[in-house]
């Protein structure tokens, strides 16, 4: 027995192949016991998913994978209407699945072209690409800051080395001067030498 009164005629294929194939599948009179509109024509019902996957899907979609069929419905914005209480399990041949979309209505094939595939994948890719670009930009900023810090450290190190060299030069000059004074004092006698030694100790 059919799930509904006789439905509308099949529609011609358009650019939105999946949705038009789906509409033709729902109105296919040969399989009204497996897929058909609900009573109000606002959704379609699938019965006995095993038989539906075996007999109906290959005819319209060239595959028999019900999970893939449901994923495609989700990508086009269809929503599953829960026909069983949550947690209730039934055999596959007894399960009833109902799907709805505000633009997928009985007798309104003119609305089919308004059903668009959701841009989830492209939006996710765009967002991830944007995040990657932002991350790379932050890494570039951090790298530039690190380079500046390294340059500053190099300049500080060079300045320390210059100061150290200048200090060493002054020490060498002081030692040279003290050696000259020591030699001079020795040549002037022991008293002057002792006074210079006392002066040298106090200076140190």
UniProtKB/TrEMBL annotation:
- Species lineage: Eukaryota, Fungi, Fungi incertae sedis, Mucoromycota, Glomeromycotina
Record's InterPro entries? HSF_DNA-bd, WH-like_DNA-bd_sf, WH_DNA-bd_sf
Domain HSF-type DNA-binding: from-to ranges: 57-81
What is one Pfam family matched by this protein?
HSF_DNA-bind
Q: Tell me what this protein is called.
A: HSF-type DNA-binding domain-containing protein
Q: Which family is it part of?
A: Belongs to the HSF family.
Transcription regulation as UniProt keyword: yes
GO MF terms, alphabetically ordered: DNA-binding transcription factor activity; sequence-specific DNA binding
Q: Key word DNA-binding present in the record? A: yes
Cellular-component GO terms for this entry:
nucleus
Stretches of the chain forming a coiled coil according to its record: 136-170
Q: Where in the cell is it found?
A: Nucleus
* Top-level division of the source organism's lineage: Eukaryota
Which keywords belong to this entry? Answer: Coiled coil, DNA-binding, Nucleus, Transcription, Transcription regulation
Q: Which organism is it from?
A: Rhizophagus irregularis
